[in-house]
Hints:
Blueprint: E1 2-6, H1 11-27, H2 32-43, E2 50-56, E3 59-71, E4 74-84, H3 93-107, E5 112-117, E6 129-137, E7 149-152, H4 158-176, H5 181-195, E8 205-212, E9 215-227, E10 230-238, H6 247-261, E11 266-272, H7 276-284, E12 288-297
Helix pairs in contact: 1-2, 4-5
Amino acid sequence: MTEFNTLADVTPWRSGFERRLREAYTAAGCVDAAAEQNVSRVLGDPGDWTVAEITTSGTRVGFVAVKVTEDQGTPAGRIGDLRVDPEYAGQGHEQAARTWAERWCAERGALRLNVQLTRPDELFADYPVRGQTRMRVIASAPKPLDGVTARPMTEAEYPAWLASEKDAYIADIVRAGALDPEQARQKSDADFARLIPEGMATPGHSFLVLEAAGETIGTGWLKHDFLPGVTFGYSLEIHREHRGKGYGRAAMTVGEQATLDGGDSALMFNVFGGNEVAMNLYTSAGYRVVEENRSIALPAG
Length: 301
């Protein structure tokens, strides 16, 4: 029988969790400093987690860590870790721990339960994918593809671009099933205000216009030094009328060159769940999954 004992001191869990996270981020290509920042971000304040040891017949076989926070005004639970020692794996303890975590969060008012994975886990295969973070280390300067080039965005082009990006962000969030349209709009407004408070003048950001044969075909938005050695690609967008012409990979090549120009050696993206076209493109271009976010709805009450 699987049992759960909540810990007053989370130290026995924390060291192993940090080590496994660090190993996962390093394996994905993060330099040590970037891996450490990711570990700190995921762990947050260790005191915020409720950690239970998983036991059977009085023997500890693993840990499960959970918490409930507000997400866009909605109580949301998170499974930060669910680990069963290899010698006890496959004996039903994993499913029992998942059921315990779902019940624990629901009892505290959570209406949604999220889990962030750094490696595939069949235990959460039925949790829909809401988004992935992908990354690729750029070993050498890429060769331009399909004659696609990039230039800095002008002040006159910025307002229309910003409005379009906000609309696209809202649509991606809703399509992924993460939030409803009003919650997605609120999140979009808040995120853009936080990320680029000074608009085009916000330090460390590149705003690009992509061109081919003298015609504008898309735009790009990148943040350099997002993590040590890592540029984050918030957007590399091909305009709808130019899609299906092979420009997607060429746009990523532009982003990779901009990454090197910005002094970084790796390019990172987010892709929302449901966007299989983008996921397939990133996979074919060698972008590995660094993190995958999955979630389910929990019954009210």
